[in-house]
Design goal:
Number of strands: 9
Strand order of the largest sheet: 5-4-3-6-8-7-9
Strand content: 15-25%
Radius of gyration: 21 Å
Enzyme class: transferase
EC number: 2.4.1.117
Largest sheet: 7 strands, mixed
Structural class: alpha/beta
Subcellular location: Endoplasmic reticulum membrane
Order of helices and strands: HEEEHEHEHEHEHHEHHEH
Protein name: Dolichyl-phosphate beta-glucosyltransferase
Shape: globular
Catalytic activity: a di-trans,poly-cis-dolichyl phosphate + UDP-alpha-D-glucose = a di-trans,poly-cis-dolichyl beta-D-glucosyl phosphate + UDP
């Protein structure tokens, strides 16, 4: 009996030691929010090739809508999405001349001709409507979205994936979701496109292993970070300018799990969040590597929570970037 007690005590001690080690690793390996820009990232090129300074999210808005599109090696998939988005936006402006917009394509250190392809749309629609922010090195999707958001002029800011998986006209659905949020303290609100209604269909098409990974990821999101949002990863989210400034100023994760931290930050600040079903289609060419990307996101989820608990990461005030 004494022997069993000693074994239990040893196991408990090992568990406590392991937990301490995990907390220490999470705390000591935590990087700070990287809001600084390379000098080249402060400017965009006009259709004639001249450099102009990007505005700041701290400035008053001068457009109704900004669409931020993170793009990494998207020279092939992006034109379809841009054609659809700009056709919708141009038609909306014709129907309502007071509606103004801009599209910001953020080239996340691509190795292909993503910037060159995006610049074709700048020349076609003007610099006032389409701007290209080319990052000097790859930051990750979260880093690209943040840099584009911090450079935007819109009263409302939509992040949308370059693959066009979500039908762009569904912006009206997330706009309605944002409008219906009540109250919006300090005009802050977020409306998330959601694929949760498609989950049963996707489970039927996935392998058992990928289904297990999906449900495991959902559990980790719920347990460690975000409650009440069924689909945190849909790349179609609409922010009020005030909510974007508040959340992106505190964002640390720059890779695939950035959406989760963004919504975690929003819930910490008690920013109201709507979740709205959108049309979504699987597009070939995903940059996600099924097992390793899910594993990385799982680790990020655990570390997000632990780093805020240990104080390695703190919620920031909305300060200006360099």
């Amino acid at each position: 009996m004494d022997f069993l007690c000693e074994i239990v005590q040893a196991l408990v001690a090992l568990a406590v030691l392991g937990l301490i080690v995990v907390f220490l690793v999470a705390h000591l390996s935590a990087g700070m929010a990287n809001l600084t820009r390379h000098e080249k990232e402060k400017y965009f090129l006009t259709a004639s090739g001249e450099k102009e300074l990007f505005p700041s999210l701290h400035d008053p808005h001068s457009r109704e809508l900004s669409v931020v599109i993170p793009a990494y090696n998207e020279e092939l998939r992006m034109p379809v999405m841009l054609d659809e988005a700009l056709e919708y936006l141009e038609n909306r402006q014709k129907q309502n001349p007071s509606f103004t917009y801009e599209v910001i394509v953020v080239d996340d250190g691509s190795k292909d001709k993503t910037t060159e392809v995006a610049m074709q749309y700048t020349r076609k629609y003007s610099t006032d409507k389409v701007r290209v922010l080319t990052l000097v090195q790859n930051r990750g999707k979260g880093g690209a979205v943040r840099m584009g958001t911090l450079s935007s002029r819109g009263k409302f800011i939509l992040m949308a994936d370059a693959d066009g998986a979500t039908k762009f006209a569904d912006i009206e659905k997330v706009e309605a979701g944002l409008h219906n949020l009540n109250p919006k303290p300090e005009n802050m609100g977020i409306s998330c496109g959601s694929r949760a209604h498609l989950e049963k269909e996707s489970v039927a098409q996935r392998s058992l292993f990928r289904t297990f990974l999906m449900y495991g990821f959902h559990f980790l999101v719920w347990f460690f970070c975000v409650r009440g949002i069924k689909d945190t990863q849909c790349g179609f989210k609409l922010f009020t300018r005030e909510a974007a400034l508040k959340t992106f100023s505190s964002l640390h994760v720059e890779r695939w799990a950035f959406d989760v931290e963004l919504l975690y930050i929003a819930q910490c600040f008690k920013i109201p969040i709507a979740e709205v079903a959108v049309n979504w289609t699987e597009i070939e060419g995903s940059k996600l590597v099924p097992f390793w990307s899910w594993l990385q996101m799982g680790l990020d989820l655990v570390f997000i929570r632990l780093r805020y608990i240990t104080g390695a990461w703190k919620l920031q005030s909305s300060h200006k970037t360099d």
